[in-house]
Amino acid sequence: MPLVADDPRPVGWPAGLMLLGGLGFVSVYVVAVLSTRGQSIDSGVMDAVTVTGSRHDLLSSLLPNPYLLLALALGLGALALLRHVRTGLAVLVAVPLLVASTQVLKDVLPRPQLADAWAMANSLPSGHTGAALALALALLLVSPRRLRPVAALVGTVVSLWMGALVVLLGFHRPSDVLASAFLAVGAGGLGLLVRGRAPGSMTRRLPG
Q1: Distance of alpha carbon 84 from alpha carbon 65, whole angstroms
Q2: For residues 160 and 171, is the Cβ–Cβ distance under 8 A?
């Protein structure tokens, strides 16, 4: 009988992404929030690039609506259920987890006042950026192989645009955006684990 060379539900790669996302998030939090130098650099960068006046108003008008991005991501997951149940479930598990984690972690993680110029509540990770990354993640999970580069490009542009704007507008520090990116990596690993092998992919068989 022919032997299946590739497991249709690979574990190693998704698990590695989950581990990378978790370790990356913890590292960003420890360096940028729990250290005096990290806080100083992080807040200093935000202060240096934050815009005011008419430029602030202009950029604010260009800020994507995070609820709309989330709705689009969940809509992609719901549509995917009609064609490939595991792909739809992957989106509907990974996307809510990513967005919920940005809100819960922001509320529960402490932020000691070490080097901030003013008292400011913890803002790590960025929920706005998490919503943009959720759409990027949904696009990657549902796209067939031939369209994946386009999906990656669209998702990257939307995520970078959102991440840059929230820093320029003074809503978030750079570390908040980076922390959300690592959460997205971890959520992506979970999504791949739930989805298994993408529909339409070929399973190579060995002669036997």
Answers
A1: 29
A2: no
Q: Tens digit of pLDDT for each residue in 151-187? A: 999 999 999 999 999 999 999 999 999 999 999 999 9
Q: Where are the domains of the chain?
A: 15-199
Residue 140 CB neighbours (<10 A): 18
Query: Would strands 205-206 and 3-4 be described as parallel, antiparallel, or unpaired?
Result: antiparallel
The dihedral region occupied by 157, where left means phi > 0, alpha psi between -120 and 50, and beta the remainder, is alpha
Which residues, 6 or more positions from 25, have their beta carbon under 8 angstroms from its beta carbon?
A: 125, 179, 182, 183, 186
Q: What is the C-alpha separation between 88 and 167, in angstroms, rounded?
A: 32
Q: For the whole model, what pTM was predicted?
A: 0.90
